[in-house]
Amino acid sequence: MSAPSSDDNSIATYFGYGEIGDSDAEQKLQDMKRRKTRRRLWTLAGIVATYALFYASLLVIEFNLAELVGQLGQFYDALLEYFPPTTYFGIPFVDLGAYLDFMIAENLILTIEGGQIVWGAMFVTLAVAFAGTVLGLPLALFFGVMSSERVVPYPFNFLFRGTMSLIRAIPGLVWFLILIPLAGVTPFTGALAIMVDTTGYLGRLFTDELEEIEDGPIEGIRSTGASRTQIVSFGMLSQVFRQFIAWIAFDLEHNVRAAVGLGIIGAGGLGLELYIQRQTFNYTNMMACIILIFLLAASVELISQRVRSSLREDDDVEQSGILEAFVNAPKKILTSTMGRRDR
Description:
Strand 1 (85-88) and strand 2 form a beta hairpin. The strands form two sheets. Strands 1-2 form a two-stranded antiparallel ribbon. It has a two-stranded antiparallel sheet with strand order 3-4. The protein is extended, with a radius of gyration of 29 Å. It contains 15 helices and four strands. It folds into three domains: 7-60; 73-118, no CATH class; 121-337, Orthogonal Bundle (MetI-like fold). It has helices at 6-14, 23-60, 65-70, 72-82, 96-105, 121-146, 158-169, 172-183, 187-211, 216-223, 228-236, 241-267, 270-279, 283-311, 322-342; strands at 85-88, 91-94, 111-113, 116-118. The protein is mainly alpha-helical. 74% of the residues lie in helices and 4% in strands. The longest helix is centred in the N-terminal third of the chain and has 38 residues, at 23-60.
C-alpha cells in the first residue's frame, strides 16, 4: 500500500482521525467523500427538478414574452389614465383633483351630508376586517389553548389542531362563498369569513407560542394547589400575553388586506368599488381606489407596528408617535442599509 500523502494526513488530523495510515481513518475519509458526492448529486437533482417544474408552470400559464412586448403600447395608454396628467402652477403633475372628486362623489371616504355622517367604502372595508378579527379572537384563543399538548394531552389535542388545519386549508374567499346562504352577499358575510379565517391562523400562532413557554412558572402555580384553569391562566397565558397582543395586531393588518379581496367578490367596501371601476375600464377611478387601499393598509400596518414595538421587552426601541414614525422611516431605512453594507 502506498504511503499516505501529507495532504491526506492533514485532513485526517483536522477531523480528529489521527494518522491516515489507520484503516478506520481511511474508511471515514472515504465515507466523507461519498457523502459529499451524494450531496452534490442531490443538489444537482434539485436544481434540475426545480427548472423542470418552472418550465412546466410556464407552459401551463401560457407564458408568452412576445405577447407582453406587443401589449406595451396598450399598457402605456392605460398608465396615462391611471395617472391623468395636469399642470400645477405651470408644472406638469398628476391630476390629484380627479382622484379626490371621485372619492367624494362615490362616498369612498367619510363625508357629511345633511348634517349626517356617511361612512364611505374605506370604512366599510376597515369595519369588515376589525369586526371579523374581534369575532374570531375568542375562537382562536379557545382552539389555540386546546391544541397545546401542555393543556390537552396527546393525541386528543389533535382534534383541535385538525380543526384549525381544515380551516386554514380553505381560503377566506372560499369561506365567503360557503357562508353566502347564511348571510347573503353582504359585508356581514365578509366579516364572518374573516372570523373563520382568523380562528385557523391566529389559533395556530397561539398554539406555537404556548409550546415555547417555560415550565418553571407552570410548576410554581401547580405547587400552590391551583386548579387546571388557574394553571392555564396564570402559569401559561401570563407568559405569552405580549406575544398574543402582537400577533393579534399582525392578524388585523392581514385581515384588512383580506377584506379588500372579499370586497371584490361582493363583501362591499373598496374591493367592490375597485371591481366595478375595472368592469367599466375607468382606470382613473381604479387608481383612486388603489390609493385609498394603500393608505388604509399602510395606516393599519403602521399602527400595528407601533403596538408590537411598544410590547417588546427591550425598552431601547424608540417610543415615537405616528407622525414621528413617518418622518423617521427614511432615515431608519438608510441607516439599516448602510449598516448592512459596512458588514
